Amino acid sequence: MANQCAVVWDDSVLGYDLGGQHPLHPVRLDLTMRLARSLGLLDDVEVLKPSPADDEDLERVHRPEYLSAVRSAPTAAWDVGHGLGTDDNPIFDRMHEASALVAGASIQAAEQIVSGRADRAVNLAGGLHHAMADHAAGFCVYNDCAIAIAWMLANGVERIAYIDVDVHHGDGVQAAFYDDPRVLTVSLHQHPTTLWPFTGFPTETGSPKADGTAVNIGLPPGTRDAEWQRAFHAVVPSVLDAFRPQVLVTQCGADAHREDPLADLAMSVDGQRASYRALRELATSYAGGKWLALGGGGYSLFRVVPRAWTHLLATVLDRDLDPNTSIPGDWMAHAVRVAGNVPLPTSMTDGADPAFTPWDGVTDAPVDTAIRDARHAVFPLHGLDPLDSRD
Questions:
Q1: For 380, what's the count of Cα atoms within 13 Å in the CB-facing half-sphere?
Q2: How buried is residue 79: exposed, middle or buried, by Cβ count under 10 Å (0-12/13-18/19+)?
Q3: How does pLDDT run across 321-359, given as a tens digit for each residue?
Q4: Quick one: CA torsion of 25, 123, 314, 259, rounded to 10 degrees?
Q5: What is the pLDDT of residue 3?
Q6: Domain of residue 115, CATH code
Q7: How far apart are CA 165 and CA 287, in angstroms?
Q8: Coil, strand, or helix at residue 47?
């Protein structure tokens, strides 16, 4: 039935485990789902168990020789290359199977939307947006975001918009569709001169045959909720209105938070909640309500990711949580056991106000420089006036 949200999840996706003290630890997913269940968000929700993506689906984005390298890596007696076996992308047992399962979960979520069984779908284990056609990168083996988009294009969807709010540039998805005018990729990220992968400049706007379909907003370190929201609303709604997608796909990395150890933006959980609500409004206004939400980065494993993504689930499900909601005692008891000495939050808020002043022209504020650069690079390519605050 349409107008419902499909949640794709199974504990088996926790097998995407890069091991040891790797920042992308699956405990963040486990704690998120435990918190959502403790708060009753998944009551009466049928949770769909994912199946692995097959080679045909993976090869819509990745090269066959790369798949072979991923399969052979755990038992190979030689360096298989392709970005595997690095500190960022260590080799682990059943790496292909675990990675294909995450990709399959995103395809299954996409299929729920394309089939009409749901208007919205979510795969929190997804969002592995850095993987390239022939190599792993940035903790990502298979690029489930691009794979799900490619699957939808192959199954009748003609125009898809992808919005990436991870603190790192959504480089792998941009690269996959840089030549494809059917896909609009929008990334809000920390400025590429200050953070890996050092791409995502405003001048990256798509190839000549798809010019204007890549949109990049590089935010200065220290960007807070109000500034982030100002930049988002000054650019994203206008390009979506011009592009008119049939489906909105979002990568909702939680690492733009001020406590994230791998980056330097300064959002709160309250600002992240506001960003999810804004994405929901955009899906309703510009994509016929069709919204595929994926996870992504986020390395404050105990304090931030579970709260942020529980708010994401609540938003996608139209079961919005009061930010002052207390965190249930059963979740706290479990989290204490796995978090050790990390102090845990007691409510779903950071006590921040994410209200912002809409952009109405360039000021001396660093975020307005980012807005100016993005609008001047891409707005004319969509017939929009970069100086007009109504666009």
A1: 6
A2: exposed
A3: 999 999 999 999 999 999 999 999 999 999 999 999 999
A4: 30
A5: 56
A6: 3.40.800.20
A7: 18
A8: strand
Residue 354: inside a domain: no
Residue 326 is classified by DSSP as B
Helix (H/G/I), strand (E/B), else coil: 328: coil
CA distance 223 to 243: 27
Does residue 288 form part of some domain? yes
Q: Which of 280, 281, 312, 283 is nearest to 296 (CA)?
A: 312
DSSP 15: G
Is 0.70 surpassed by the pTM of this model?
yes
The residue segments making up the domain with residue 87 are 5-349+364-382
Task: Dihedral sign for Cα 201, 207, 211, 212, please.
Answer: negative
Q: Looking at the predicted structure, is the pLDDT value of residue 1 above 50? A: no
Phi, then psi, of 307 in degrees rounded to 5: -70, -45
> 92, 14 in Cβ contact below 8 A?
no
| Number of Cβ within a 10 Å radius of residue 368 | 17
Whether 330 maps to a domain, the answer reads yes
Cα–Cα dist 42/28, whole Å: 18
Do the Cβ atoms of 193 and 221 come closer than 8 Å?
no
Residues noted as catalytic: 130
Could you give phi then psi for residue 7, rounded to 5 degrees?
-110, 120
> Do 15 and 101 form a contact (C-beta atoms < 8 A)?
yes
Stretch 63-74: mean pLDDT: 98
Q: How far apart are CA 384 and CA 98, in angstroms?
A: 43
